[in-house]
Design goal:
The protein is mainly α. The protein has one domain. The chain contains six helices and no strands. Helix 1 runs antiparallel to helix 2 and helix 3 packs antiparallel against helix 5. The N and C termini lie far apart (62 Å).
């Protein structure tokens, strides 16, 4: 999803969470700025967009805005952790060489067939 779509998703999540009007206004301001990126093919992660919003002066000065965005970030992290529970964190996909005894036995089987 590009920046415009991510901001739209952030706005929707904030509305579902019952966020402050100032927080919605901040996201709307960035939505207006990102209108030129509406058809862009550049993908922007949701986490990166929320972090960008958290660094804005309005978010740093307003506790309600900062808390709303931080709640959104925490929900995203919780969802990510649940997704990680489905798959193991480390899957051993390294290739192990076969032992020499395997090749000896294979060679003996080939000799017996001839």
């Amino acid at each position: 999803m590009n920046a415009y779509e991510q901001l739209g998703a952030i706005r929707y999540q904030l509305e579902l969470n019952g966020a402050n009007e100032d927080t919605i206004a901040l996201v709307d301001k960035f939505l207006k700025r990102a209108e030129s990126e509406r058809d862009s093919q550049t993908s922007v992660p949701l986490v990166m967009m929320v972090r960008h919003l958290l660094r804005q002066k309005e978010a740093l000065d307003g506790d309600a805005i900062y808390n709303d965005l931080q709640e959104l970030m925490d929900n995203n992290e919780a969802r990510k952790t649940q997704d990680d529970d489905v798959r193991p964190a480390y899957e051993d996909s390294s290739r192990q060489p076969r032992p020499k005894s395997y090749y000896k036995a294979l060679k003996e089987r080939e000799r017996e067939r001839k």
